[in-house]
């Protein structure tokens, strides 16, 4: 996550006012390593940023390895966004340190990318402002996360937990719980290191066990059968281990009826639906 005060445009790395050519270089650098690069900025920005606008204070960068159960964050201040090109992002993907400063506090990144989808700005900015009023050092606005229909969306690092359909009150409750070492389950969308059916399985198991610790749950196996496009749907079988005990969770994925998914949508589209069809101790 690279600090750039904005504006971000429709496609953040392509359209943000980064120095000429840097956005595309950053995109290619991250893509080659299999790493996702997001832009961040502090809530409540009032100025328009151009190239070098953050130079005086430096640009904050967070390198996040969000693979369960071993998640961590490193951080640094960069004088120039080009410095990201000198980082070995393949090491980050592999779970190895980039040699930056360890960052032990959670980061709450709220999507406010209104040029990508208006819902994100309209619903995300009040959430980011509410969080910034109580936890200003932990909160950032972030470019497009995905799942615009769930706005307001928030990513919690280093865990990689996605939360959706937030309002200011629920977001503050989630953040305070995480500061205290707990994961709030009601608005949880899933963990970024897993495909969506596995995310659904983990959420179901956490609710079944009442498990609110960020760790403590390890994915042991997963397998898929069928096709989501067919009537029976795609079936995903997972096995998780908690406290030495294994649990099997089966998820069926099907398509919804066409619905309006985002504020910018010009036609209805189908969405994936994940139904828990089995959960047992094994």
Beta-strand level of the residues, as a percent range? 25-35%
Helix content: 10-25%
**In sequence order, what are the helices and strands, one letter per element?**
EHHEEEHEEHEEEHEHEEEE
How many discrete domains? 2
CATH level-3 fold name of the largest domain: Glutaredoxin
Global mean pLDDT: 89
What is the structural class? alpha+beta
CATH architecture annotation name of the largest domain: 3-Layer(aba) Sandwich
Sheet having the most strands: 7 strands, mixed
> Nearest-angstrom radius of gyration?
19 Å
CATH C-level label of the largest domain = Alpha Beta
Count up the helices. 6
Explain what the structure shows.
- This protein is α+β, with helices and mostly antiparallel strands and 282 residues long.
- It folds into two domains: 2-179, Glutaredoxin (3-Layer(aba) Sandwich); 195-281.
- The protein has six helices and 14 strands.
- The strands form three sheets. It has a seven-stranded mixed β-sheet with strand order 1-2-7-6-8-9-10. Strands 11-12-13-14 form a four-stranded antiparallel β-sheet, with helices on one face. Strands 3-4-5 form a three-stranded antiparallel β-sheet, with no helix packed on it.
- Strand 8 and strand 9 (161-163) form a beta hairpin.
- Helix 4 (118-134) packs across helix 5 (168-179).
- It is globular and about 55 Å long.
- The chain starts with a strand and ends with a strand.
- Residues 46-55 have low confidence and may be disordered.
